[in-house]
Design brief:
The chain is an alpha/beta fold and 404 residues long. It is 48% helix and 13% strand. The protein has three domains: 127 residues, Rossmann fold (3-Layer(aba) Sandwich), CATH 3.40.50.2300; 142 residues, Response regulator (Rossmann fold, 3-Layer(aba) Sandwich), CATH 3.40.50.2300; 103 residues, Arc Repressor Mutant, subunit A.
């Protein structure tokens, strides 16, 4: 019987982002590798005793300085995951699977701009060694706002977590009170977005009509239990875990401890829209009608002339007013929504690609593949393989699978 590789997954299962990555790793193990996994639920015990632990590989997030220090000198394959900050050394030859923070920030801005908001805001974390990913998202969000000619307000607050809840909420309420209304607000993650929702509730502000709120992570527990339910960006954390496991498996099979500093950047899947951003922040009823029609049938190529006739405007006039509000042409917004809808069907359903292509108005899977590759750089088959929606896998399930 062949030896089963022993792999340590050094992530914090209490964090939504890390938990989703663990789910992606577990999926890879179920589908492609016979591994025994060391995954510890208790953050204080997540690092094995490396003096006594004789494993074959490690997947780790470098947010914890103790973790980075403990594994730095090990001569076994190690793959880093996350936003690229913390105590990961970018000059090392250790491979790393990154979150695409620039794409996440721009995606958030595009979603809120499409809701018609003239004023936008971003709520992140104070600058620390581990929060560079939040800064990257803020910079990309603000850049997208500037390019659209819209105002943007960025705030980090003085408190990185909820241990000083009253102080955190006081600071947040002061900032939100100072913002012009209505406003579209993106938080750097779902946890921070929940803080915003609580501040709005205590201030008596209506969400989404006064403040539309968008998070990142698409953590079901947070998004569905908040009031109202939280719109969020699915940043493909499960795919990050899957890609990291695939890279580590290759290194183990090839018998190498490094992968020449290989870097894998994983783009977000898209926005999962819920009640917290279900608003149209414009008084231009013609534009509201156009946006709603695009959203109601995102898979269908829009009849722009027909929409213009319905709202009693010439097509050039509607196009100009639409771009002034949304920051993109009707065609570009339609393509963005169509791509997002196709991706959701591919990654979150088991529908045959032929069925999806037909629903999306393509005469064949090949035409849909060409369209998707032109706008995303990937193919339907690749999306389904690496990004499809997974059932959340608990740490206990991952350990049970590894021990079997």
């Amino acid at each position: 019987m062949p030896n089963v590789p022993l792999i340590a997954v050094i992530l914090d299962a209490a964090r939504p982002y890390d938990r989703l990555i663990i789910g992606g790793i577990a999926r890879y193990v179920r589908e492609r590798a016979l591994w025994s996994l060391y995954v510890e639920e208790d953050p204080l015990q997540k690092l094995p005793d490396l003096k006594r632990w004789h494993g074959d590989g490690i997947i780790a997030n470098f947010d914890d300085k103790r973790v980075a220090k403990a594994i730095a000198g090990l001569a076994i394959p190690i793959v880093g995951v996350g936003g690229g900050y913390g105590w990961f050394d970018p000059s090392s030859t250790m491979p790393y699977v990154f979150t695409d923070n620039d794409a996440i920030g721009r995606l958030g801005a595009a979603h809120l701009l499409a809701c018609g908001f003239e004023r936008l805001a971003y709520y992140g974390y104070p600058t620390t060694a581990t929060s560079g990913w939040s800064v990257e998202r803020a910079d990309a969000f603000a850049a997208a706002c500037r390019e659209a000619g819209k105002d943007c307000h960025v705030h980090t607050g003085r408190h990185p977590d909820a241990r000083r809840w009253q102080d955190l909420q006081r600071d947040l309420r002061e900032w939100i009170t100072s913002l012009p209304k209505p406003i579209g607000l993106m938080a750097c993650n779902d946890v921070r977005a929940r803080h915003v929702l609580e501040a709005c509730r205590s201030l008596g502000l209506r969400v989404p009509h006064d403040v539309a709120v968008l998070g990142v992570d698409n953590d079901d527990m947070i998004c569905e239990l908040t009031s109202p339910s939280l719109s969020s960006i699915d940043q493909a954390a499960r795919r990050i875990g899957y890609e990291a496991a695939s890279l580590l498996d290759r290194m183990i099979c090839e018998g190498v401890a490094t992968a020449a500093g290989e870097r894998v950047v994983v783009p977000p899947i898209g926005v999962v829209s819920r009640t917290s951003t279900d608003a149209m922040a414009t008084s231009d009823e013609a534009v509201v009608t156009a946006i709603q029609k695009l959203r109601d049938e995102p898979l269908i190529k829009p009849d722009i002339a027909g929409i213009a006739h319905e709202v009693c405007l010439s097509r050039p006039t509607l196009e100009a007013r639409f771009k002034a509000v949304v920051g993109r042409s009707i065609h570009d917004e339609s393509v963005r929504l169509r791509v997002a809808a196709i991706r959701r069907l591919i990654t979150q359903t088991a529908l045959p690609l032929k069925t999806i292509s037909s629903r999306a108005g393509f005469s064949s899977v090949q035409y849909m593949t060409t369209f998707l590759h032109r706008h995303t750089g990937t193919t339907p088959a690749r999306l389904r393989q690496s990004e499809r929606q997974l059932v959340d896998v608990t740490v206990a399930d991952a350990n049970q699978r590894g021990d079997s």
